[in-house]
Amino acid sequence: MKRIFALSTAMALAVAAPAMAGDEPFYSKNLNGNWFLGCYAGDKAAFSHCSLLTRFKAVTANQKRALRASEMYFSVSVHDSMKTWTFALGAPQWSLDRNRPYDIVFRFGNGHSYAFRATVAEIEAASTLLSTMLISKPALIDFMQEPAFRIEINGSDVGLFNLTGSADGLKALFASTAQYSSHEGDAGDTFPSSSTF
Questions:
Q1: Where are the domains of the chain?
Q2: pLDDT tens-place values along the chain, 197 residues long
Q3: Are 50 and 40 in contact (CB under 8 A)?
Q4: Do residues 33 and 165 lie in contact, with contact meaning Cβ atoms separated by under 8 Å?
């Protein structure tokens, strides 16, 4: 648990840098499905964002050498604007080139896929890919209802990510972000209503 707490804090710092003033969340909670929720403050102790983090086994025989990993970390963060979310994906064994692009695709079993370009950051002595994208209702529904999705990086299959507990985790993520930010009225506009499920 100390390791996942350290990774959660480090990923959050990278996502929010250089705004972060502290190195620990002011609110944290362990959630179902091995998810960790943390909320962080920025400059002058103002709210910055909340993050979910988990770790999972990367089971695939098709990984390219630079992307091989037995265990990976995945994080999603929502800032106070409630309009975008930032994904962080990393592995202790990775040593990625900061000067090359990394194209990531999340492929769900229902045929939906989401593609974006990521940048490299060094977090806890491991290469981590960071990317920010607009929050959309279809993507939220996929993350909450689908059991898993495959992760591809530059065309290489790096593993299957199990979404156990993601529905409760995302609800807690958005609820906490709305609670601690100045955009409390935005949560209902951005997050699918309970009647959707």
A1: 2-192
A2: 445 545 544 554 445 443 333 457 888 888 887 899 988 887 667 788 888 888 877 655 555 666 666 678 888 888 767 788 888 888 877 778 888 889 999 999 999 999 999 988 866 556 788 888 888 889 999 999 999 999 988 888 888 888 889 999 999 999 998 888 864 444 444 444 433 33
A3: yes
A4: yes
d(CA 154, CA 169): 28
Asked: is 2-192 a CATH 2.60.120.280 domain? The reply is no
Q: Are 88 and 74 in contact (CB under 8 A)?
A: yes
According to DSSP H, which parts of the chain are helical? Answer: 2-16, 137-145, 166-180, 187-190
CB atoms within 10 A of CB 83: 13
Q: Are 150 and 160 in contact (CB under 8 A)?
A: yes
Task: Give the Cα separation of 162 and 141 in Å (integer).
Answer: 15
Query: Coil, strand or helix: which one is 55?
Result: strand
Centre a 10 Å sphere on the Cβ of residue 41 and count the other Cβ atoms it contains: 20
**Which one-letter amino acid corresponds to residue 191?**
F
Q: How does 128-154 read in b/e, with b if 16+ C-beta sit within 10 Å?
A: bbbbeeeeeeebbbbbbeeeebbbbbe
- As a whole number of angstroms, the distance between CA 195 and CA 197 comes to 5
Question: Amino acid identity of 115?
Answer: A
